[in-house]
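Dear colleague,

Thank you for sharing your sequence with our group. We've completed the structure prediction you requested, and as agreed, I am returning the results in plain text so they can be pasted directly into your records. Please verify that the sequence below matches your submission; if there's any discrepancy, let me know and we will rerun it promptly.
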Amino acid sequence: METRQEIYEIFKQFSPDSHPSEIVLYGNGHINDTYRVTCPASGGGKHYILQKMNREVFQYPVRVMENICGVTGWLKHKIRENGGDEFRETLTFLNVKDGRPYYRDNMGEYWRACLFIENAECYDMAKNERDFYQSAVAFGHFQHLLADYPAETLYETIPEFHNTEDRYRKFEQAVSADPCGRRAAVMDEIRFVRQRRELCPVLREMQRKGELPVRVTHNDTKLNNVMIDHSTGKAICVIDLDTVMPGLSAYDFGDSIRFGAATAGEDERDLSRMSFSLTLYEAYVRGFLEGCQNALTERELDMLPMGAIVMTYECGMRFLTDFLEGDHYFKTHREGHNLDRARTQFKLVREMEEKQAQMRDIVTKYRFCAFD
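Please find the predicted structure tokens below.
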């Protein structure tokens, strides 16, 4: 890890006239190294976020930044048109001397800096139903503002990220190879995945047929990627745009439900504590469609419940694949951690399948509000 002086010199590339008084590690992210930088200012300190991008996860950091700058530039324009605060409602990145929004150090590492959004914070878990609803409004509004953005011009920064068919192929390879000798212990989970193989092509086949439009998608739509204003309790800004790519609205909706409408953490060992909450699901549907306004097509609305099922199935399959391969992708903190994660997701899939009719009814309940 870099020394404080090295980090100081890196930050100076973005803000040559600044003299940081404090540099501290910040946040709970597991991908990039993140620091909060404080610079003296009249009336108090001015804060920035400085990040070293993870080149193992993001092998083309320049493309990541091109995506981010394209999307945030578009958002700023829309926010100004709506009379909003572009420095509070989306991220603002700093450029180095030659105009690039990143700095490459002498070790080949890529850094970026942005303004810190004051008097707001992210929550790792919803304190109440309102927080989950607010995250839904934020991600729905994200879709609304970017509805006419040319999504096809964005780079696919993690190729095949939500290609569930490709995820299944890799799963079967892991089952066949069984490099760690773990297959025999998880035959029930393997059967679960195989019995639902027909889920894999559903969304992408509709995309190929032109039934679902390609959108700008966030691809990490968890509550902790939404800034909540301290004074109003309302969502003001979607952050962590590294995985912004072309995709389907069902991906973002589905991943939110997978994570947020569950009654326990995704690595819960006691499966009796894990269930799919229709109450939380309804809160998210209401907020998401309110934020989207009329951005989504009727067919996209039809497929939101299926998006929740497919994204949860895909995530569970990825956890199980990583377990079979020796836990090399997802960080683990105990024996069988990825297997615990897979089992929670598979329980959610079962419950979603049982409650699919109710899930559709809830979308129907709020869908017409989205078109008013």
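Summary note from our side: The radius of gyration is 21 Å.

Kind regards,
the structure core
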